[in-house]
Amino acid sequence: MATITKRGNSYRITVSCGYDLNGKQLRRTMTWTPEPGMTRRQTEKELDRQAVLFEERCRTGQVLDGNIKFADFAEQWFKDYAEKQLRPTTVARYHVLMPRINAAIGHIRLDKLQPHHLMQFYNNLAETGVREDTRYQSTVDFKALLKSRGMTKREFSKQANLSVYVLDSMTRGDKVSATSAHKIASTLKLPLDKVFRPAEGKDTLAVSTILHHHRLISSMLSTAVKWQLIFSNPCSRVVLPKNKRKEAVYLDEDQAAQLLQALEGESLQHQVIVKMLLYTGMRRGELCGLEWKDIDFERAVISVRRSSLYLSGKGVFEDETKNETSERCMKVSDDVIAMLRIWRAEQAKERLRLGDQWQDNDRLFTAWNGAPIRPDVITAWFHKFVTKNGLPPIHVHSLRHTNATLLIAAGTNLTTVAARLGHANTTTTSKIYAHAIKSADQAAAEALQDILHPVRKQA
């Protein structure tokens, strides 16, 4: 039963929650202050109600306190907040950061965590030798090795429990994680040093990675404040390292034309994928989530309603768009609609050809058997396509940046560009595409000068 103690103008409600392993009684407390103007009878009635509610919350495990260690609170935060409120891909990225965070501050009580603890952690992350994610590069001809063993890349990926994308990355000389390298060597039944060598690179963490750790900790502690476990968030009193904003990577008009010309030698599906990304500025996941019912062929309008994502162990799954404003409709040109009509007819032929092997769904872009396409498969193919055709070193998301940059350069107002991209506001758009806005502003100034410049009289 709750115990109530008057403390000045407020009341402290205490509830016993049993005993810990050492026999120490566990107590939970809360403070309640009557609203101004409440009568004595109203105060007593509401106080009894608050005590009953608090006791019930304690009984059902809904109440924590500042005595809890950060690591234990983090576990509860993931369970009660992150897994219910955040996107699965975000939660997965956060879990990757937790080992370092818990090693540094997991043992500290929540109410004892101070800014200097966080500063010490961030300074440590910036030191040389902190990186635990040593990367590896292949020293063998992986394709030839698989061929000699009579295996396909897809078969090997299943045996190694790795995505084809990782194998593609290794084949083209990219760095892979230590976990992936060990899995590949183990599946090949070869020592690690016979297949890989440690890759040369930075042995310190990027500033953006340090800030990512900070944002996660701050999000957790902000929730702790809302749950009334601590009075304030110590992250708000920390001086953070400066991180320079990187300029968006994009193609200019000539480079975009070069890309479109190079596309002519690719499969129809890849042509349509790249052109859709370039003409609409959609995110990769949004494109993969498109279904035929989202295409209004009569009005030439495409509706973005969902995103298609992939997680190891979960596979391809459908999710909401990045935010509320990301769910949008956009007008497209007649050329885009004509291209989609051709692609729909081609997909229908392939469905008939495969018969029972085809997995029925309404997606525009699929794997060979009709199953939803994995977003990382597009990324892997696009990297090879760019390298093969001698295009600038861009990635799939660069097509979104190119779309926005070309629209701004053509004089499209920022509000329209932000709406087409699905940005929550024009501030986001102006920050990302400051380079394009600056160039457009210069062009506008020069155009105005040409218009208003007085006509010089011929001498």
List keywords for this structure.
459 residues; mainly alpha; three-stranded antiparallel sheet; 18 helices; 11 strands; 50% helix; globular
Query: Helical content, roughly?
Result: 40-55%
Strand content: 5-15%
Distance between the termini: 102 Å
Number of helices: 18
How do the strands line up in the largest sheet?
Answer: 1-2-3
Note poorly predicted spans. Answer: none
Average pLDDT metric: 86
Shape: globular
Multimeric state: single chain
Query: Would you report the number of β strands?
Result: 11
Task: Tell me about the largest β-sheet.
Answer: 3 strands, antiparallel
Rg on CA atoms, Å: 29 Å
Structural class by helix and strand composition: mainly alpha
In N-to-C order, the SSE pattern is EEEHHHHEHHHEHEHHHHEEEEEHHHHHH
Detailed description of the structure:
By secondary structure, the chain is mainly alpha-helical. It contains 18 helices and eleven strands. Helix 7 runs parallel beside helix 14 (375-388), helix 11 (268-280) packs antiparallel against helix 13 and helix 16 (414-421) crosses helix 17 (426-432).
What's this model, at a glance?
The chain has 459 residues and is mostly helical. Helix content is 50%, strand content 11%. The chain is built from 18 helices and 11 strands.
